[in-house]
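Below is how a single chain appears once it has passed through the pipeline. First comes the sequence as given, then the structure the pipeline wrote out for it. We keep one example in the README because the format questions we get most often are answered faster by looking than by reading.
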Amino acid sequence: DYRCHRCVSAAGTGAVFFALSVLLSWPVSGVAEGDSRWSARLGYARVAFHTDAAIAIAGLPAAGAAVVIDDQTVLLGDAGFEFNDRWSARLAIGSPLDLAVGASGSLRALAPPLSGRLGEIQIAPVIVSGLYAPRSFGRLRPYVGAGLVYAWVRETAGEDVQGLDATSEWGLVVQAGCEARLGQRWSVFVDARQLYLDTSASGVIAPLGGAPVTASVELDPLILHAGVGYRF
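Resulting structure:
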């Protein structure tokens, strides 16, 4: 519910500020700049979905119907190339996400005969971003950027919605973060990506006599990512 989302958001924000405070307090003497323009980063990411849906059952809009997707923790890695001291590009690939899609809003009133579990989709995200670092503060290097995301729907499995089908889609991403050099090659980082991503889904609701259902769903996940980096 709303209070739980506020608690999760507050906890995530607190963790980010704690990580930044650790980076700021790290001594800066003896750091050498790496010569290579290539780098790779790996860490765990918390993915918080902010869903909105337009759903039609048997061709009629289902007023107040909504879906819910629980937050996920995923291993996320990216690779980057620095064009110069200010501009860089990064390609991020996450491990596939198994997303259980639950009924919410007016759909909850249909349980039973519905179970409240509409189905499951597996998504593999690929994110490409262009980043700009306005300046460095000692070993700290904050950055902002934007780019594209492609969400590949690899598998679907129906529960209340049988024959579930969902589309792979392109979307947009805005990004901000901070990287701290630990030496010539190693670094640590915190990063936030806000994705603007939709998908379309269809199937039939077996408990309602096989009524066809279609949905346009905004996923719009916020990805909070932290980990270590290495320059090649």
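The radius of gyration is 21 Å.

See the next section for the split statistics.
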